[in-house]
Amino acid sequence: MSSAATAQTLDKNGQEIKAVGFKRFGFDSEVALDVLRSLYLRPHYAPATTEPKDAAIKADSEEDKFSLFQSKSIYYPETHSISYTTLSRFPPVKLLPPSERKRILVTGGAGFVGSHLVDRLMILGHEVTVIDNFFTGSKTTVSHWIGHPNFEMVRHDVVEPFMIECDQIYHLACPASPPHYQFNAVKTIKTSFMGTLNMLGLAKRVKARFLITSTSEVYGDPEVHPQPEDYWGHVNPIGPRACYDEGKRVAETLTYGFQRQDGVDVRVARIFNTYGPRMNPADGRVVSNFIVQALKGEDMTVYGDGKQTRSFQYIHDLVDGLIALMNSGESRPVNIGNGDEFTIGEFAELVREIVEKVQDEDGVKRERRVNIIYKPMPTDDPQKRRPDTTRAKETLDWQPRWTVRMGLEEMVRYYKAKMEEGSL
Ligand code: NAD
Ligand code: UDP
């Protein structure tokens, strides 16, 4: 395990975070943090020089305990190649009585947010099906569950109908980073509209509860700050971000249409900027760009004058919020985000400082301090963004626990490990 896993992780009140999730609304989402970390914060490949351990024999140390559930893939540095083996044993999942075990569909489950949601739901003992077209996601994010009797992975594009018996649908499928959703704007709109229509149709047919991951982008470039859920937004309907912003707005309209007309049981999460391990390093979003640039010793690119603001939420807080919302009785839209707001210029400096801290702790020598440089501002880039999370606090009893610093440190370690293994 990396040193991050042994160092204390403190929450906003200075309390150690040992577990994420909670028991609320009759649904227990609590999982030990080190169990989750063992699935992402670890060297992915064993070097070829290491004799593979016999996993079944014993698990004396903490490291062994988790290595039991790791891929036994072997890395050959001379040829920069990998030999994959199947897992000998899956991570333990809770044994739930059939009355508590849910059949859960996660669309976009091979993406960044989806894969963390899948980890949590699997460890909690539910039956999980992922459908994904791998546009921005990758099979490797959930490969540690492939073959598990509670898990199924289907390559499927949500613009086409899909039939399955299930109790809950988390509908995430949609690219989320501006370069990716603008790559094929028409497809993005189609995914938002047709994909949501198909998944709502499925929810109606099988009487499943439906949750859509909407976005703070429905508020556009907001004139109200921070943004509460009853703010209707300020969106350019024909700009380069419209395929995503208007796509999510119409997806929300569809969702409430199915609720009113057909009685579908719906949940709408409006997610604010979220970051964490497994974000595609080539994703183009600010957190992954800054960390990867700083780790590689490249200039960090701030767009515009860096005075625009965002507030950043760590992935485990988001997963806690999504599960709480799904199992609650709240069918109005709910903002899920962290209120700690930074200008992008300040944020670049914070990321640089944390990357340097991690490098110093690990004895990495830097040739120079990376520069922060300025690039043109993308069209329609919102000037400010911060969630008003009063509703989430009142109805879900949910508030973010992770400080941006703690989350960033963990993400830096994740990308650093990827760099060291040669996959970044
Ligand atoms: P991501 O790009 O990592 O994941 C999206 C997943 O959906 C990928 O696995 C992708 O392959 C899949 N997908 C895309 N189009 C599809 C299609 N037509 N059919 C099937 N699968 C498809 O993005 P993410 O950050 O994990 O975002 C997940 C969800 O959360 C999205 O709906 C996004 O709009 C929402 N969201 C995320 C953030 C954030 O900061 N991460 C903020 C607001 C909203
Ligand atoms: N940004 C930046 N440098 C980058 C990537 C993004 O300065 O390398 C800025 C971007 O212009 C925006 C903010 O960071 O103001 C957040 O961008 P991101 O793409 O992560 O998400 P958004 O909130 O814009 O959807």
TrEMBL record:
Subcellular location: Cytoplasm; Golgi apparatus, Golgi stack membrane
KW Glycoprotein (keyword) present: no
Enzyme class: lyase
Keywords assigned by UniProt, alphabetized: Cytoplasm, Decarboxylase, Golgi apparatus, Lyase, Membrane, NAD, Signal-anchor, Transmembrane, Transmembrane helix
GO cellular component: Golgi cisterna membrane
GO MF annotation: an example: NAD+ binding
EC number: 4.1.1.35
InterPro entries assigned: NAD(P)-bd_dom, NAD(P)-bd_dom_sf, UXS-like
Any Pfam family matching the protein: GDP_Man_Dehyd
Domain NAD(P)-binding: 105-411
Catalytic activity: UDP-alpha-D-glucuronate + H(+) = UDP-alpha-D-xylose + CO2
GO biological process: D-xylose metabolic process; UDP-D-xylose biosynthetic process
Pathway(s) per entry: Nucleotide-sugar biosynthesis; UDP-alpha-D-xylose biosynthesis; UDP-alpha-D-xylose from UDP-alpha-D-glucuronate: step 1/1
PANTHER family according to UniProt: UDP-GLUCURONIC ACID DECARBOXYLASE 1 (PTHR43078:SF6), UDP-GLUCURONIC ACID DECARBOXYLASE-RELATED (PTHR43078)
Family classification: Belongs to the NAD(P)-dependent epimerase/dehydratase family. UDP-glucuronic acid decarboxylase subfamily.
Name this protein carries in UniProt: UDP-glucuronate decarboxylase
Species name: Coprinellus micaceus (Glistening ink-cap mushroom)
Organism phylogeny: Eukaryota, Fungi, Dikarya, Basidiomycota, Agaricomycotina
